[in-house]
Amino acid sequence: MPLTAPHGIDRAAHHRLDEAWLAAAWSHPRTRVFVVSGGQVLIDENEAGVTELVTTPSFEAPLTESHRYFLGTDEDGVSYFALQKDSLPGPIDQSARAAGLREAGMLLSPREAGLMVHAVALENWQRMHRFCSRCGERTSIAAAGHIRRCPACGAEHYPRTDPAVIMLVTDEEDRALLGRQVHWPEGRFSTLAGFVEPGETIEAAVRREVHEEAGIPIGHVEYVASQPWPFPSSLMLGFLAQATSAEITVDGEEIEEARWFSREELREAMETGKVLPPYGVSIAARLIELWYGKPLPKPV
Ligand SMILES: [Zn+2]
Fold first, then answer.
1. Is residue 194 a part of any domain in this protein?
2. How many domains, in total, are found in the chain?
3. Which domain holds residue 30?
4. Ligand 1 center to 152 CA (angstroms)
5. Residues having C-beta closer than 5 Å to ion ligand 1
6. Rounded mean pLDDT of 132-154?
7. Which CATH number goes with the domain that contains 238?
8. Which pLDDT band, with edges at 50, 70 and 90, does 91 fall under?
9. What is the CA(136)–ligand 1 centre distance, in A?
């Protein structure tokens, strides 16, 4: 599953406060650096047609007026840094292009997608937390991008991750419940999802969200897998959930339509283009495939 596979990078968090170590790692000739800007990176195809993250040695990296995030080391001891800048550098060669996580997450290796998702999540957090949430003073970056410190009240702020649940609901006939959000393009259906609220377990959040959005009561809930989803700062927690009744009442605010699909109905709807699948990189697509039993059909 994209963005969830083990990727062999040790985040080496114990080095983040060690300025001497970071300086040595940065200037090491084998260190690799890439720029992240507005959630995008540069990607390129190599001679074998494999899409890769465009990285440079640090001595070629455009450090001026950028923030440096240390992302970790690989099993060969190579260090990886991301530079957060206001814009991406000009393409290094003509075939390189800018890509966001929805596209690059599908194309890059698990290792490079993992580095990218770490950098994008840090960038989103940094952009939205420039001021101290305790006293309002402007904060500064520390710990190689992983802490913001307040000079006025001394508070340390850490990157936040907002848990969200996403669930494939099935009924007694093993049909799947898919819904349409109000602002989605016509025909796009996906699993229901929502944020975990304060003081709530993730299982309770699954039951509450399905009931709120589709009026369906839920019995058994089973955790499947998680996926970092920095749009801007979510962690998607994927579930399978069993409905105890099939009668749908949509809320009409977040979800404008919800329907039960048998596998045959979903195949027909997707092959004729009446139903568009969720984004390929998202855990929603994987949850639906888990129920469907194979890759989702394409329009024919
Ligand atoms: Zn403060």
1. yes
2. 2
3. 13-128
4. 5
5. 132, 134-135, 137, 150, 152-153, 155
6. 97
7. 3.90.79.10
8. low
9. 6
CA 244 / ligand 1 centre spacing (Å):
49
The answer to whether residue 217 scores a pLDDT higher than 90 is yes
Ligand 1 midpoint to CA 230 (Å): 25
Same domain for 102 and 181, yes or no, is no
Q: How far is the CA of 141 from the centre of ligand 1 (A)?
A: 13
Measured in Å, residue 131 CA sits from the centre of ligand 1 at 8
Per-residue pLDDT reduced to its tens digit, 92-128: 677 899 999 999 999 999 999 999 999 999 999 999 9
Same domain, 169 and 287: yes
pLDDT in tens, 14-57: 999 999 999 999 999 999 999 999 999 999 999 999 999 999 99
Q: With helix as H, strand as E and coil as C, how does the chain read?
A: CCCCCCCCCECCHHHCCCHHHHHHHHHCCCCEEEEEECCEEEEEECCCCCEEECCEEHHHCCCCCCEEEEEEECCCCCEEEEEECCCCCCCCCCCCEEEEHHHHHHHCCHHHHHHHHHHHHHHHHHHHCCECCCCCCECEEEHHHCEEECCCCCCEECCCCEEEEEEEEECCCCCEEEEEECCCCCCECECEEEECCCCCCHHHHHHHHHHHHHCCCEEEEEEEEEEEECCCCEEEEEEEEEECCCCCCCCCCCEEEEEEECHHHHHHHHHCCCCECCCCCCHHHHHHHHHHCCCCCCCC
Q: Is the pTM of this model over 0.70?
A: yes
Alpha carbon distance 148, 143 (integer Å):
8
